[in-house]
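Researcher: Next entry in the queue.
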Amino acid sequence: MNIRSLSVVPALCAILLVFMVGCERAQPSVGANSTNDSESELTPEKVAADPAMQPTGSDPELKIVMLGDSLTAGFGLPSSAALPDQVEKLLNADGFRTDLINAGVSGDTSAGGLARFDWSVGSLSPDLLILALGANDYLSGMDPAQTEANLSTIIELALSEGIDVFLVSISARSSAEADPRAADFAAIYPRLASAFSIPLYEGLLEPIYDQPHLLLPDGLHPSEEGVQIIAAPLAEALETVLTAEQGQH
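Model: Structure for this entry, 249 residues:
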């Protein structure tokens, strides 16, 4: 805050004016209408007892960032219907004070998530990172080894900054028999969870597979109802992890 300096003459004038007015006032008598200094003193007890002096809100107890692609961003849906918003509502309804930030970008790959980690995650200093990337790697034909390397680096960065990680796998619809790459991608997530000793949530989209009424017309992305269905078990899994972490503190 910049403090403006006062010139000497105005300051002296103000002092003289206050002195003159003070001299003209009679000494107040102590009576029923006077206030004792001890009674008017602002104490911590009075602040606590006065609702007008209470803060209007408080910071969230837990800040969570969900780093993902269109499934996180809420492709084709209002922002309030996106997966992070729905999970946050469920967590808060169950007594977890959270701020779940949507860091999803439609079409993003693990490489894209890694490239924007600093400003999408690190700059926010969250307590927890929900990492939900890899679906577009599979769809774009990326080498599973490269996807695993990218995800591994993201996890390492988060943990090095004191951010806990909750890994979400997004399995391909095709079977391993139909597409061997599907099995290669599916194996990435348990391997990473084991290597870094972090919780893993598998099968995010399985509850709505092959149910067109829970998908958008593109047949790929969940509708609002579809998001609500996949949000419930995800929130439940997060609650288990958050409860365990709170018990350790």
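Model: The chain is about 45% helix and 10% strand.
Researcher: Noted, moving on.
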